[in-house]
Amino acid sequence: MKKYLIFSTLVILLFLFGCEEERALRLQPAPEFYQGRALLPNGQQIEMPESDRALMIELCQPDNAISTIPNGERRWLGTVTLTQPLTDVATSSTFPTATLFTIHNESYVQCQLDSITYVTKTTSLPESLSDVQYAADTYPDTAKIRFAEPHEYEHFAEEMKKPIGNEPYPERKGIEHTLFHITMPFNGQFELTLNSSEGEERLMIPIDASRHPYLSIGLGTEKSDDTSQYAIYTSPDQNDYQTVLRPKQAHMSQMFGAKAASQLPSVLVPGQRYPLYSFTYMKDGTANRQLVSLTYHQPDLLHGEELTKQIHATLSSERHALFHELALLGTESKDDSFLQHVGTEEVDFLFHAIEQANATSRAGTPAPVPYLTLFQGVCAQTFDVSYDGNDVYVTNSKTGAHFKLLREDAIKWHNLFEGNS
Predict the structure, then answer these.
(1) CA 47 – CA 207 distance, rounded (Å)
(2) What is the pTM of this model?
(3) Closest by CA position to 64, among listed 119, 110, 116
(4) Pairwise CA distance, residues 331 & 321, whole Å
(5) Dihedral angle sign, alpha carbons of residues 159, 160, 162, 166
(6) What is the SS3 assignment for the chain?
(7) For a disulfide at 193, which of 33, 216, 287, 293, Cβ 3.0-4.6 Å?
(8) Residues 378-414: pLDDT tens digits?
(9) Record's PROSITE patterns (predicted)?
């Protein structure tokens, strides 16, 4: 699929992904300014070409989100993450993480943006993933749990003796009969609820992009210097148990009477809380009874107006701008010397000033730093900047259309950015 054909289908994203198209501001989806990486079921990571990055932007168009997906095993094809190396805000969420999967030979994309989850159906897959479907991993659409076998208890106890973290290593001890194994469903998250006389605390275990098929979970204690506490230890392969969930109120002097649930169903009903452990711990001379329960939560799939509203609210504030001495190729690092990043308040001014600019038939003399690129959501637009005395002109680099800033905006422009020249 040629990138220009894909680009023609992306125009409808301009509003939905936080882009604006008014007069001088004509931001377009900009896969050329992204880097795309796909995690495959075999653990390999591959770089995606621009045409595939453009397709992923199209596939996560929220207007195509569906309200439900059919039951059945999910075959995971890969998870795609797009990043913007030119954006200097590391925590910026400009595009959903996209997970491609099939059910009954029909293809779907799960798009995750912060806490927003939605699914679209597709007949197109990225060319770089075209061969993956024949080696895709299969995942259930339900969460399953089982008690560990005696030899697995013993292995858990031995693994917990291994040092983790930094020296001095804490002394860890696994409570052998508290080990469970979970067959991980395709999506959602698990919630551990801890109830005691000290209150209630909740710990989350998300199902992340690495898509491990299993999770072992056990109760244990650790002692460092004169401090003891209990914790929940997890492992995707029954080794090391280096992932530790430590409750805030877990410090204690002693634990005793730990018991695991006597029975559990093989399949966890979404939203239902299941008791896992109970134990007593001593703290400040007082005995406290702790109950630990597990709940599997399926994601709430957003669609329609509510999804559009949340997507727009999330991405509309994701703005960035930079002046640059050379034309952008999309592969530069944000630290390249010819790039000059703009502060948040100045970014807001640039969008406002250019939005108010009036069309004109001419431009001025190229500015010492002649280019400006604005980013918003998954969109971008580059301008040629020129001056005629105190007048400021911006020219759409793709169409050649000229625009002149209002007088008061031009004065503020020079006050803010003449140092860039």
Answers:
(1) 23
(2) 0.78
(3) 119
(4) 16
(5) positive
(6) CCHHHHHHHCCCHHHHCCCCEECCEECEECHHHCEEEEECCCCCEEEECHHHHHHHHHHCCHHHEECCCCCCCEEEEEEEEEECCCCCCCCCCCCCEEEEEEECCEEEEEEEECCEEEEEEECCCCHHHCCHHHHCEEECCCEEEEECCHHHHHHHHHHCCCCCCCCCCCEEEECHHHCEEEECCCCCEEEEEEEECCEEEEEEEECCCCCCCEEEEEEEEEEECCEEEEEEEEECCCCCCCEEECCCCCEECEEEEEEECCCCCCEECCCCEEEEEEEEEEECCEEEEEEEEEEEECCCCCCHHHHHHHHHHHHCCCEEEEEECCCCCCCCCCCCCCEEECCHHHHHHHHHHHHHCEEECCCCEEEEEEEEEEEECCEEEEEEEEEECCEEEEEECCCCCEEECCHHHHHHHHHHHHHHC
(7) 293
(8) 889 999 999 999 999 999 999 999 999 999 999 999 9
(9) PROKAR_LIPOPROTEIN (PS51257)
- Two structure tokens written together for 225: 């210097």
Q: 51 is written with which tokens?
A: 């045409």
Residue written as token pair 């140092």: 419
Name residue, tokens 């992340």. 208
